[in-house]
Design brief:
Chain lengths: 348, 434, 249, 284
């Protein structure tokens, strides 16, 4: 592991060199909010962002991704994307989410489309400088990451510290001009940033210890809260779509005008949407808003953790902001389940 | 000579909306000759009543799919006038730019898809794909350029979404403007192909003349579409848009759901030919050259030549569009002036713009919360209906000795020359303003 | 099997949707490789007899139009309603809120009594004849239209989303209009437009009509959270969907 | 943890890419169902077990999960029975011998013909198209007849016209020790057999719950009632196997559509041991 100190100018030049080498996707301003987008010049980069509208997973699991091209005669050809690129300025919680997706796309039947994009990515994490309105990463242990990244940028007074790891990290470091290692004082300031972020990224306070969440949910299947909240649910799927750990998708074909050539692609889908579990003939296996609403909290708090051993909510708070009905706050839901045990459960 | 002529064209084709032509003549004596408009009435003035100022543009844009930008702009200007608002000059120029896109789109659609088949003796553009592929491609190029143009500035080809009271909801990026400029440059050769074709076919436009009054927006030194006062070839006097009712004296004719209009004479004409007859000397060089190549001169009173004037205007708007884009890129788009705040108030406002088919007026009155309590729209095609009828009355006796089919075609072509937009013309001036 | 014979018919509307078909321009050449246009008043002078697909644009406002529509239905194998006016009445249905006599008086003043100005209640196409397929939007989106045509030609059921505009809006990473304190109808409106309006800085005004089961009560309840009144919301909902039972709270 | 990510050189197969297969035979079964006999173009056997499914693909239309209806004991070719309900299934119904389809799979779990079923008495309870996947297991049992005890086949169809595989019943029963009972929900003029829902058949058979395994497949509404019927007869949940249907897209445990609580049906199903899913409130 090596940590370098970059002043603002060095940072800018380094980003410029990254851009010259590979496509670089970094954080840019969009209207009043922030998004990840292709950087054309270093000045566009906004490492002081609070949170992006969509998580950076969109470069590894694109919103719409062509999987196959087909030709007449049921001839299918895989479409791969393995051009190397750089993801610059990923917040720790979003990085944790990407690592969860790694596990989920690798397990059992590995998804080579995902994996190739993932391998092509060089990911530079950036510690949070400005806390967003709804972030609670501090409560779920995702305010800080200490490994598995290729680069890690941390703001210190007059510049940034850059830690690099592994082969991709070496490549990142090789593009630094006159690299100077960080000194002890700077490293200790970085520790302060981490300490601080663990404390400060808690706009909502989760009162359930993450490891107890599974049991709490197992007891709460019939809790009246699901109905109460879902009464206001639009089934709009916004909470799914902005979530860095959601990965459900739909697969569709689209032919060109010849009708027998085209692509099979996948698009993000959401379990809150009405037709998500609907089959031909009209039977819906999750027909009520409440059942769909509940399913999301169970996925985050119980189902995915059962698969990979980690809470599948990284505390980015995006769903809280995205829900126009104001009902998608996981912290509020989990706290309420804990604070108001369902009568039947209490009787047990 | 045909002894009896009996022409009944129900729902004339290749025009926007429904119109009928009726001609009954026996032994050279005309018994009935009518331009009828049976389009289903839609009552927009009633529809906007009670709606918030925010939604007026959204609703009235739906008066007409082809001139939705013009309706939007007329409405925005009228609402802004009612609230006493000033729109920053750059945003006015962006609006004009969007407005130009519509002129190109509408004129090229009309000339290429609706008129060309007449001139080439076909019933639709489909056979021309085989017989005149270069012309059809040029038309498609011009038409799609107009569409793309409106999309870049207005956010959609039809029914713009970015045009709003106070300015814009979103500005194009500089890259988008640059690529739009390229598109416009690339469109010029296509317009040349169209103009050449029209030049070769101009002698198929019937040789017919009728002096009438021409009405259009005028503004000193400019071939104007978006700003100015109401001018006429019958008078030096100009009328501010706020007093448009002085000009468009509308009346209901029993033969149409749409309304008719008169000013100094029993009818007047609006549209490309009217604009040219009033402002022709202000055309930019390329457009002026196109006019002279095609032989269009001020004072032309052959309504069939409205088509030629439309061709000239296609060149004019592209030429001026490029100039406007250059100026915008030069000064840089100013996000700060994108929109000015709106304070609704009790008030009334009117505005005029040149829609592709001619001058268009809107007027609204609001209550103190900005809800619409009265509206009036006066549409170009309405203003032309009476003129079409008068043209019929002069033309038919001149050609009554011809074959019935030929008469029918000439009448249809005459109607098409006006490019009537009947779906929007089914409105009525509410003289007793509610 | 020959190419499907397709005809386009218009009723009360702005004709913006059939204009979208003309707006295909170069793709029109591809389109006529797949289908044979046999009747289209706005673009051609021919009239056809029996047809495979009738594309109907506009709302039905008069008895004579109901009759004409029924005849079209008889001639057509498949009837497709094109655009808001046809699929659910669109802006035209705003008219139904005012008694007809009043609407006539407002628009035609003293001349309102003339027989040819008569017009009944505004109806969507499916309120007069059975409709096989609806293409939503005011105007329709040409990319969606051409995709649906291709899907039909390939013999598959066209994909028409039954999820709200918010889905597409999120995928396009727009700042939500509610963050600007505007009322957006995205959460109850059927997607398929690729969130065109929110992506252009405008709220969704619901031109595509509601999803199958809009949670309209939520929309009403949520207004207070944004300091808006139910009246504000209803004003927006009425624009394109005043005829829809499903938008009433 | 990141093994697959690190192995840059190693590239894996595309789990979404169908293999080409050819239609060898098409047979009309009912008004809405057709049988297709298929062969992979590679010439390999499909390599499935009874109860598994494949994703059938037609380019430009899409994919659908379809159970394999024939037993692997019947050779290289395999059979699918498809009910026409939507886009893909309608398009499949237009196929003729010689036409191509894409095939992914086989996927999912199978009826435990080599473990739990072996050496026991077996009850197959099928409603309608539920007979399609189960037929694969029936063939397997018939082909290895001596490995199993008494076999009961209970089949319920909506109407006599909806009965499937009617010309095979005789063959299924011929090795002996087979009880085959049928009912229809609604009889027609010519039907002389039983009328009533499938649960009415359960009291008609005599079996020893301790030595018997049951396999159930049918429409969503059927399961609860049949299970109650079996439990009343003393069957334990461990010995009941169900095959469940869900909305499915990817077939490989990624897309999320088929989830029953935490379970991906395409991975842990479609065949489940009842005792493993009884506390899942979304299962039945
Ligand atoms: C494990 C399994 C085995 C099956 N076996 C058979 C069989 O042997 N024979 C048979 O006829 N049918 C079977 N089905 C049902 C069959 O998959 C559906 O009827 C089929 O997907 C309908 O597709 P469609 O394109 O014709 O219909 P559409 O309604 O046009 O389908 C649209 C999309 O919805 C999804 N979908 C719709 N219905 C279902 C459904 N029931 N299950 C899963 N996804 C669905 C599909 O993803 C499809 O792409 C099985 C389903 C599952 C899950
Ligand atoms: S559930 Fe909400 S807070 Fe948690 S990771 Fe997903 S979007 Fe972020
Ligand atoms: S964002 Fe809110 S309203 Fe929309 S589906 Fe999620 S919980 Fe429901
Ligand atoms: S802007 Fe409208 S459509 Fe977009 S997310 Fe917000 S509410 Fe939904």
């Amino acid at each position: 592991m090596s940590v370098y100190k970059l002043n603002m100018e060095q940072l800018r030049n380094w980003v410029g060199r990254l851009i010259a080498e590979r496509p670089v996707y970094g954080v840019r301003q969009k209207d009043e909010r922030f998004v990840f987008g292709r950087l054309k010049k270093p000045e566009e980069l906004r490492l002081d962002y609070d949170v992006t509208i969509l998580p950076p997973k969109k470069y590894i699991l694109p919103t719409r991704e062509n999987l196959l091209a087909y030709q007449p005669g049921e001839h299918y050809e895989s479409l791969w994307a393995d051009e190397p690129f750089v993801l610059l300025g990923v917040h720790p919680y979003d990085f944790v989410a990407i690592r969860q997706l790694d596990l989920l796309f690798e397990r059992e039947k590995p998804d080579e489309h995902y994996l190739r994009r993932r391998r092509a990515a060089t990911i530079i994490v950036a510690d949070v400088e400005r806390a967003s309105d709804n972030v609670f990463a501090g409560c779920v242990g995702t305010a800080v990451v200490k490994d598995a990244f290729d680069g890690l940028l941390t703001r210190v007074e007059d510049g940034y510290l850059l830690e690099v790891r592994g082969e991709k990290g070496e490549w990142l470091a090789s593009l630094l001009e006159s690299p100077s290692p960080a000194n002890a004082a700077e490293l200790s300031r970085r520790n302060d940033v981490w300490e601080n972020n663990r404390r400060r990224l808690r706009k909502h306070e989760l009162k359930v210890p993450p490891e107890q969440l599974g049991d709490l949910l197992r007891r709460s299947v019939d809790h009246p809260l699901w109905e109460e909240k879902a009464r206001l649910c639009y089934s709009c799927g916004s909470c799914n779509l902005v979530c860095p750990t959601c990965y459900c998708f739909d697969v569709r074909d689209e032919s060109d005008w010849s009708l027998d050539k085209g692509v099979r692609y996948r698009v993000w889908d959401g379990c809150l949407l009405e037709d998500f579990a609907m089959v031909a003939g009209g039977h819906n296996f999750r027909p009520t808003r409440a059942a769909r609403y509940r399913h999301r909290y169970y996925r985050k708090g119980l189902y995915v953790p059962e698969m990979i051993g980690e809470l599948a909510c990284v505390g980015c708070g995006r769903c809280i902001t995205a829900c126009t009905a104001g009902i998608a706050n996981p912290v509020e839901v989990y706290n309420r389940l804990q604070e108001e045990p369902h009568e039947d459960d209490a009787a047990e | 000579m045909a002894e009896t002529v009996n022409i009944q064209v129900d729902h004339i084709t290749r025009v926007e909306g429904h119109g009928n032509i009726v001609l009954r003549a026996r032994d050279g004596h005309i018994e009935k000759l009518e331009w009828q408009v049976p389009e289903a009435p839609r009552f927009f003035e009633a529809m906007v009543k009670g709606r918030s100022w925010q939604d007026i543009q959204t609703v009235v844009s739906r008066i007409c799919g082809i001139c939705s930008v013009s309706h939007s702009l007329a409405a925005l200007k009228a609402v802004e006038a009612a609230f006493g608002m000033e729109i920053p000059p750059q945003m006015q120029r962006l609006r004009l730019l969007c407005h130009y896109g519509e002129q190109l789109e509408s004129h090229s659609l009309h000339l290429g898809y609706l008129v060309a088949p007449d001139l080439l003796g076909q019933k639709s553009v489909l056979p021309l794909i085989e017989s005149h592929p270069d012309l059809v491609r040029a038309v498609m190029k011009a038409h799609s350029t107009g569409n793309r143009w409106m999309e870049v500035i207005g956010g959609r080809m039809t029914h713009p979404v970015r045009l709003k009271v106070g300015g814009f909801t979103k500005l194009p990026t500089e890259e988008e403007l640059v690529s739009l400029r390229t598109l416009l440059e690339e469109c010029l050769p296509a317009l040349e192909v169209m103009a050449d074709a029209l030049h070769d076919l101009a002698d198929r436009l019937p040789d017919f003349r009728r002096e009438t009054e021409y009405v259009a927006l005028v503004r000193p030194g400019e071939y104007t579409f978006y700003e100015g006062h109401i001018g006429s070839t019958d008078t030096e006097e100009t009328v501010p848009p706020a007093q448009f009712e002085k000009v468009a004296n509308e009346y209901v004719s029993p033969q149409s759901t749409a309304k008719w209009a008169r000013w100094h004479r029993e009818s007047y004409m609006v549209g490309a030919l009217a604009r040219f007859n009033l402002n022709g000397e202000y055309l930019l060089p390329r457009a002026a050259a196109t006019a002279s190549k095609l032989g269009l001169e001020k004072g032309n009173c052959n309504p069939y030549w409205n088509n030629i004037a439309q061709m000239v205007e296609c060149v004019q708007v592209v030429e001026d569009g490029i100039r406007l884009i250059d100026a915008l890129l030069e000064e840089g788009l100013d996000e700060q002036s994108r929109t000015v705040p709106v304070t609704p108030r009790d008030g009334e406002g009117a505005a005029a713009v040149e829609a592709p088919r001619g001058i268009l007026f809107h007027r609204y009155r609001f209550d103190s919360r900005g809800f619409c309590i009265g509206a009036n729209m006066c549409i170009p095609t309405n203003q032309n209906h009476a003129n079409i009828q008068k043209d019929f009355e002069k033309l038919v006796p001149e050609i009554l000795d011809r074959d019935q089919e030929e008469i029918r075609l000439m009448l249809e072509m005459l109607v098409r020359a006006y490019d009537p937009c009947i779906s929007c013309s089914t409105h009525y001036l509410d003289v007793t303003f509610v | 099997m020959g190419k499907p014979r397709v005809a386009i018919f218009d009723f009360a509307c702005c004709e913006g949707c059939q204009l979208q078909i003309a707006n295909l321009d170069e793709d029109l050449l591809n389109l006529i490789e797949l289908v044979e246009p046999v009747e289209w008043r706005e673009a051609m002078s021919e009239k056809a007899g029996q047809i495979d697909v009738a594309i109907v644009e506009g709302s039905i406002t008069r008895a004579e139009d109901e009759q004409r529509l029924k005849e079209i239905r008889q001639r057509a194998e498949i009837l497709m309603a094109l655009g808001s006016c046809a699929t659910h009445g669109g802006v035209n249905k705003l008219r139904n809120r005012v008694p007809l006599e009043e609407a006539q008086r407002i628009v035609y003043g003293a001349s309102a009594g003339m027989p040819h100005l008569q017009s009944g209640q505004v109806k969507a196409v499916h309120e007069v004849v059975p409709v096989d397929l609806k293409i939503y939007g005011c105007p329709i989106e040409i990319t969606e239209f051409s995709r649906i045509i291709r899907e039909l030609a390939a013999g598959r059921t066209p994909f028409v989303p039954n999820y709200p505009v918010c889905v597409e809006c999120k995928l396009r990473e727009n700042v939500c209009r509610y963050e600007y304190n505007e009322i957006c109808l995205g959460p109850v409106t059927r997607a398929g437009c690729n969130a065109r309006c929110p992506s252009n800085g405008m709220w969704c005004f619901g031109c595509r009509g509601p999803v199958d089961h809009p949670n309209i009560n939520a929309a009403y309840d949520v207004m207070a959270k944004y300091g808006k009144t139910v009246e504000d919301l209803v004003g927006k909902l009425e624009l394109f969907c005043s005829g829809e039972e499903r938008i009433r709270g | 943890m990141r093994t697959m990510l690190q192995s840059e050189e190693q590239t894996l197969e595309d789990i979404y890419r169908p293999r080409p297969a050819t239609v060898v035979r098409v047979e009309d079964m009912t008004r809405t169902e057709k049988l297709f006999e298929l062969e992979l173009d590679s010439g390999e056997p499909l390599g499935h077990m009874p109860g598994q499914f494949v994703e059938v693909s037609l380019a430009g239309i899409g994919e659908a999960p379809i159970s394999i209806s024939s037993s692997p004991t019947r050779g290289r070719r395999f059979e699918l029975v498809v009910r026409r309900v939507g886009s893909l299934t309608r398009a499949l119904h237009h196929l003729k011998p010689g036409d191509k389809v894409g095939i992914r799979g086989p996927f999912g779990t199978w009826f435990p013909v080599d473990t739990d079923l072996r050496g026991r008495d077996v009850i197959f309870i099928c409603g309608g198209i539920g007979l399609v996947p189960v037929r694969s297991a029936i063939q397997y049992v018939v082909d290895n007849r001596t490995d199993y005890g008494h076999v009961f086949i209970l089949f319920g169809a909506r109407t006599p016209a909806d009965r499937l595989f009617t010309d095979e019943y005789e063959q299924w029963c011929s090795p002996g020790e087979v009880t085959f009972l049928e009912t229809v929900d609604k009889r027609d003029a010519r039907w002389t057999g039983a009328e009533g829902v499938i649960t009415t058949l359960i009291p008609c058979i005599r079996f020893d719950p301790a030595r018997t395994v049951a396999v159930i497949c049918g429409p969503p509404v059927m399961y609860r009632f049949v299970i109650v019927g079996l439990k009343e007869r003393g069957m334990a949940e461990e010995n009941i196997f169900v095959s469940l249907e869900r909305r499915m897209k990817c077939g490989v445990g990624k897309c999320g559509h088929c989830q029953i609580n935490h379970i991906y049906v395409c991975q842990k199903g479609p065949v489940f041991r009842l005792s493993e899913i009884t506390d899942l409130e979304e299962a039945l």
